[in-house]
Amino acid sequence: MGWGRMLLMGNVGQQLDIHDQRDELQRLRQDLSRNDDFRFEGKKAVQKLQKENDELRLYVASLIRLLVAKQVLTAPEIAQMVTDIDAEDGTRDGKISDPIQ
Question: Are 77 and 84 in contact (CB under 8 A)?
């Protein structure tokens, strides 16, 4: 490949170099296409998770408002419960790692 091939083989060597470069470009295009497909699938998965998260938030907010409206629980009681459950796994990080019971 390169100057050595061209000096030793002349035009044939140059044509071989061109062919090698075309093959490499094709391989790079295929790799790029696969990466684009992977990124697209990842983006779709994130969008699906965002939609599910938005829907869950809507349902949780509706349940909390219903519990407060029916005077089953007060807003401070719910807030305290969230704090207590968050701390149960040993870390107050705004998420739950233990099974929901």
Answer: no
